[in-house]
Amino acid sequence: MIAAIPGVVDVSQSAEEAQPLLDFVIRRDLAADFGIPPAAVGTALRALIDGEEVSSVRRADGGSDPVVLRLPETLRSDPAMLGALPVAQAGGLAVSLDQVTRREGTLGPAVIEREARERVITITAGLDGRVLGDALADIDRGLAVLDLPAGITTAMGGDAEELGDTVASMAMALGMAVICIYLVLASQFASFLQPLAIMAALPLALIGVGPALLLSGSTMNIYSMIGLVMLMGLVVKNSILLVDNANQHRRAGLPLAEALIRAGSTRFRPIIMTTLAMIFGMLPLALAIHPGSAQSASMAQAVIGGLISSTVLTLVVVPVVLTWLDALGTWVVRHLTAAAPPHGAGTSP
Question: Which residues cross the membrane (predicted)?
Answer without folding.
Answer: 167-185, 197-216, 222-243, 271-290, 302-325
